[in-house]
């Protein structure tokens, strides 16, 4: 058993399937080339020593003393993974962990899940703890839910740990069944344009938790285990809850539609579903902000086949399916629209589907 190593895990972009994961629904993310890298070394003194190239200071705590609240800030995502593993009886001892984060922060690209996933892979492999990647995703989710206090679903950690290069990950968040569906736009002359609006992406301000409570309350009123179990969007519910239900039901349908199109090699036809998703997130789920809406409008006006916000909302990124030849024109249209509204300048780049978490230098099987 080696005592040290370097591990990395990617951020993610969700093609479609937003706010469905905590409703036992379906999601379709890809992993990004942007990674969080963790350099890990076992320690014999039972101490967890955490540092980051992107932050000042060092956090130290004895692993035996780990409880929610014992570590705060970025280090809580790391310590939480060790805590969750120990809570479930896995013999994780002391570690020195140096983090180098290359996933844009605050952009809704799941830098936190990438950090958790890289940590989980590092400490379990170096400790000789044999857990499959679905189990690691669940551990990482528990860390974020119970140690950090963010009530996220399991999509982000699953994408970071399970994704394959040039494929999208179709995930049933209830059964954890997965299917790797080809997603390679270049042969079709297409690109996935990402617009980081720079509108801060915050999920701990209560709005994300409020949407989750709405969904659980609606499921309770309708007598179903989760909104995934509904087949129709029209329900006898208060207006706000009815709109939340309509989004989840129709979003699951859109995931199925996009997956079918990708399986059939009809990637050019997924655009309308992306745009429909954004409208639903804006009107029924109410998680967009002006920067997201303006970006989508500008992209569609510039010729994008479809565009939507991606991630939890309230800031972050927009994605658009565009012809490769139109990437620069679409990016310029967004910049002009933002300048006209007095927004800060967005950052635009194209994304490809990358591989999931790995030991650095190791090329996963395709």
UniProtKB/TrEMBL annotation:
Catalytic reaction equation(s): alpha-D-galactose + ATP = alpha-D-galactose 1-phosphate + ADP + H(+)
Residues noted as binding Mg(2+) in the record, renumbered to the chain: 112, 144
GO molecular function per UniProt: ATP binding; galactokinase activity; magnesium ion binding
Subcellular location: Cytoplasm
Keywords: ATP-binding, Carbohydrate metabolism, Cytoplasm, Galactose metabolism, Kinase, Magnesium, Metal-binding, Nucleotide-binding, Transferase
Enzyme class: transferase
InterPro entries, per database record: Galactokinase, Galactokinase_bac, Galactokinase_CS, GalKase_N, GHMP_kinase_C_dom, GHMP_kinase_C_sf, GHMP_kinase_N_dom, GHMP_knse_ATP-bd_CS
A UniProt-annotated Pfam family: GalKase_gal_bdg
Metabolic or biological pathway, per its Swiss-Prot or TrEMBL entry: Carbohydrate metabolism; galactose metabolism
Ranges for domain Galactokinase N-terminal: 5-41
Cellular component, GO, one term: cytosol
Keyword Cytoplasm listed: yes
Residues at the site labelled Transition state stabilizer: 12
Chief location bin: cytoplasm
Active site: 156 (proton acceptor)
Gene3D superfamilies referenced in this protein's UniProt entry, alphabetically: 3.30.230.10, GHMP kinase, C-terminal domain (3.30.70.890)
Binding, ATP: 52, 106-112
Domain GHMP kinase N-terminal positions: 77-162
Annotated substrate binding sites: 18-21, 208
GO terms, biological process: galactose metabolic process
Domain GHMP kinase C-terminal positions: 260-339
Superkingdom per UniProt: Bacteria
Protein task: Catalyzes the transfer of the gamma-phosphate of ATP to D-galactose to form alpha-D-galactose-1-phosphate (Gal-1-P).
NCBIfam families linked: gal_kin (TIGR00131)
Protein family according to the UniProt entry: Belongs to the GHMP kinase family. GalK subfamily.
Protein name per Swiss-Prot or TrEMBL: Galactokinase
Organism: Saccharothrix texasensis
Lineage of the species this protein comes from: Bacteria, Bacillati, Actinomycetota, Actinomycetes, Pseudonocardiales
